[in-house]
Amino acid sequence: MAIEVIKPGLATSVQDAGRPGYYHLGIPLSGALDQESYLLANLLVGNDEGAAVIECTLMGPELRFDAPALIAVTGAQAAVKVNGQEVPGNQSIAVQAGDTLTFGFMKLGARSFIAVAGGIDVPVMLGSRSTYGLGAFGGFEGRKLLAGDKLPVGTPSAHARAGQTAPDVGRPALAKDIPLRVLPGLYFHRLQEASGKRFFEETWTVASEADRIGYRYKGGTALEFLPRTPPFGAGDDPSNIVDAGYPYGSIQVPGGREPIILQRDAVSGGGYATIGAVISADMDRVAQMQPNHKAQFVAVDMAQALAARAERKQRLDAMRAALAP
What's the superkingdom here (predicted)? Predict the structure, then answer.
């Protein structure tokens, strides 16, 4: 079977769990930005956890099915409609040949995930079906979906059945104002003490430049760096360094003005100081922030970051147990 894209939405692409193992070659993780919602969507339709789904951002697509299918939509709060009639999100739903799936505006959250029993069956590229837009490979022809595209679907598992509902533990905690825990990083010492303190005291607002590469924040006081003589290979801007690797979730502040959280499609290194990293347990929350949503950065230490990661694992395990065949 296949799914035809009638309207592509704002930024819709095929994604899966990601493409680890190539960061040293400059190829980032890619994959669904909100991994928890992605996992939930696959579990609801009985897919393998690594199956490819459709990720849509802020404005969902219009899709038509050419054969009966089982689908589930998770992530952002938005009306989900089949043939114009609203149907439940966070639940597996049977659709028929010729049915059309549409979406209302995302009221809260920024990304929805559409899983189809059998998964989106695009070719595997470097171990993943995820789209990497900057590299123009993976996913469907290495790009966002366009009207007229026809997405192939794999064979559903024997566990696929309608009426599977997400447990409470699997529903994302969406809000317009959230704390984001940050582990201060390798170059935090380059900030003036007062500036580093103020970074964690002020409220920051998501700018319009927020996508799969990075999330820019504005509204706080520009950061001030300690004076220094630029080392060989670094630029003159105080935020420049000799090129270094960028961890997933790291925060760079070009010119000290507006922090940018690097997302799953970001480049793997460059010449801006990264003052810290949002902990992995909070990166799904970043992915669900819309422009003008607000965040407060909260400093944590390594022990707290690891504890948060363990709590997230427990939550995902509980979700798997609740939806086990």
Answer: Bacteria
Looking at the fold, whether 85 and 136 belong to one and the same domain comes out as yes
Same domain, yes or no, for 138 and 193? no
Closest by alpha carbon to 99, among 83, 81, 115?
83
Asked if residue 214 belongs to a domain, the reply is: yes
Per-residue pLDDT tens, the chain, 325 aa: give them.
899 999 999 999 999 999 999 999 999 999 999 999 999 999 999 999 999 999 999 999 999 999 999 999 999 999 999 999 999 999 999 999 999 999 999 999 999 999 999 999 999 999 999 999 999 999 999 999 999 999 999 999 998 999 999 988 767 789 999 999 999 998 999 999 999 999 999 999 999 999 999 999 999 999 999 988 887 788 888 888 888 889 899 999 988 789 999 999 999 888 999 999 999 999 999 999 999 999 999 999 999 999 999 999 999 999 999 999 8
Q: Are residues 127 and 258 in the same domain?
A: no
| Alpha carbon separation from 320 to 84, 195, 197, 324 (Å, rounded) | 31, 43, 40, 6
- The answer to whether residues 236 and 157 touch, using CB atoms and an 8 Å cutoff, is no
The domain boundary residue, chosen from 165, 200, 215: 165
Residue 319 in domain:
no
Give residue for tokens 């123009």. Answer: 136
199, 258: one domain: yes
Q: Look at residue 228 and tell me if it is in a domain.
A: yes
Task: Report d(CA 111, CA 76) in Å as an integer.
Answer: 5
Q: Do 184 and 100 sit in the same domain of this protein? A: no
Threshold 0.90, pTM exceeds: yes
Backbone angles phi, psi at 182, to 5 degrees: -125, 130
Full domain range(s) for residue 288: 177-313
